[in-house]
Amino acid sequence: MIIFVGRSNVGKSTLIFRLTGKWVKRGKRPGVTRKPVEINWRGKLVVDMPGFGFMSGVPKRVQERVKDEIVHFIENNAEGIELAVLVVDGKAAPEIIERWEKRGEIPIDVEFYQFLRELGIPVIVAVNKMDKIRNIQKTINFLAEKFGVPYVEVPETFIPISAKFGKNLLELRKLMEKKLGEGRKRPSTETESENLENDVGDGLLDAVE
Ligand SMILES: Nc1nc2c(ncn2[C@@H]2O[C@H](COP(=O)(O)OP(=O)(O)OP(=O)(O)O)[C@@H](O)[C@H]2O)c(=O)[nH]1
């Protein structure tokens, strides 16, 4: 199973449509609360999760419930989730993260990234809406620092894309295939450092290809 997670309105449904040719959207207005939507794609189950976080016109209580449902879905299916694509709005995410931090709260994107990794789920962060970002590398470095992604893992974790304008989607697909090929690692930092050499090697090989 591959899951797509992210805040409301970051472009998850647009991205899934671009990748699979299947339109998963149910609600008309953005931010509409909904259940996970499942589709079959190349023999795999692809799940578009409801958007979490702020949704215009949706009471906080409902937002919290949606978040809890997403967390439970992921926990209950953790063993079967081969890959999570965390979609962020590259233009809005840095501002939102700083705002949450100033309030002394853990930004929800950061929380979800770490939650997925703690469960041992491989994660790709698709930095969407790159058409709106002026300095893409700066944005990625900022997010990597906030998410706690080690420097060597940044290229295999973050990928700037534009779902709407079809930018970098082939690269995203390649990265997804690479991560799916590698499979899951045990959810411990020790394992991560043990695997570091292999990971770097893979990255170099890909670059040569
Ligand atoms: N500029 C720009 N806009 C985008 C891009 N990708 C998606 N959008 C727009 O962002 C809005 C939200 O896209 P959706 O795909 O509905 O977002 P979602 O994450 O599925 O939203 P929820 O259903 O609320 O979870 C739409 O107006 C899209 O056209 C992009 O790469 N660039």
UniProtKB/TrEMBL annotation:
CDD domains: YihA_EngB
The keyword Nucleotide-binding is assigned to this record: yes
Keywords: Cell cycle, Cell division, GTP-binding, Magnesium, Metal-binding, Nucleotide-binding, Septation
Domain EngB-type G residues, every copy: 1-182
GO-annotated molecular function: GTP binding; metal ion binding
Record InterPro entries: G_ENGB_dom, GTP-bd, GTP-bd_ribosome_bio_YsxC, P-loop_NTPase, Small_GTP-bd
Region (Disordered) location: 181-209
Bias-annotated ranges (Acidic residues): 191-200
Gene3D superfamilies in the record: P-loop containing nucleotide triphosphate hydrolases
Family membership noted in the UniProt record: Belongs to the TRAFAC class TrmE-Era-EngA-EngB-Septin-like GTPase superfamily. EngB GTPase family.
Function: Necessary for normal cell division and for the maintenance of normal septation.
Protein name listed in UniProt: Probable GTP-binding protein EngB
Naturally occurring in which organism (per UniProt): Thermococcus indicus
